[in-house]
Amino acid sequence: MDLFLIGLFLVVLADNIGVRAHPVRCSPPICPPACSVQMVPGIPCAGCFCPSLKRPDRPPFPPPHRIPPPPPPPPYFPPPPPPPRLPGKHLPPLPPPPTPPPPPPLPLPGRPPQFFPPPPPPPLLPGRYPGPPPSRFFPPPPPPPPHGRFPPPPPPPPPHGRYPPPPPQRKLFIPPPPPPPPPPRNFFRPVP
């Protein structure tokens, strides 16, 4: 089997000796099946080449001096320079101010003015919190006691501005001072 393949390869080489290979590539439908698989030594690529077929005619090319020159490129016009920047005009315009709410309606004559609750506060932006930002100089407040058992708040002051009297304080028991000791007796003085 090996000798048969080597002999077939030598026959193909003998058939292709002196045949000038053309570098024209053909599409597979144009090449016959027997020629599209032949390889010719010296050709870097597997082109459509068959020694038994007529070499395909190359399309006629005009000589170099008859090739029309390419059209000249269009003239280049640089873009106009941007207008000069005016001072303070390079920033985007500020958003329009918010429209104020409409004023409350006037009270009717002979009737007390109606109560209109204030508008709700705007919602907090994401990442914001209502309290002041934490400071690295002051420790954070202690956490609340568990189960929400907060100490009772102090009673509010009365509306007239006077505070109630303080609650009576428990008096501490102070024992009375001991009686003074008796004077020392003078044994040299006669007792009456």
Please provide a written account of the structure:
The protein is 9% helix and 0% strand. It is largely without helices or strands and 192 residues long. Mean pLDDT is 67; it is low at 17-30 and 36-46. Keywords: Signal. Residues 59-192 are annotated as: Disordered. Residues 1-21 form the signal peptide.
Descriptive terms for the model:
single chain, 192 residues, little secondary structure, 2 helices, 0% strand, elongated
Low-confidence stretches: 17-30, 36-46
Number of helices: 2
Q: Note the main sheet.
A: none
End-to-end span in angstroms?
168 Å
Write the H/E string, N to C.
Answer: HH
SSE topology:
Layout: H1 2-15, H2 33-36
Short description:
This protein is low in regular secondary structure. The chain has helices spanning 2-15, 33-36. It is elongated, with a radius of gyration of 58 Å.
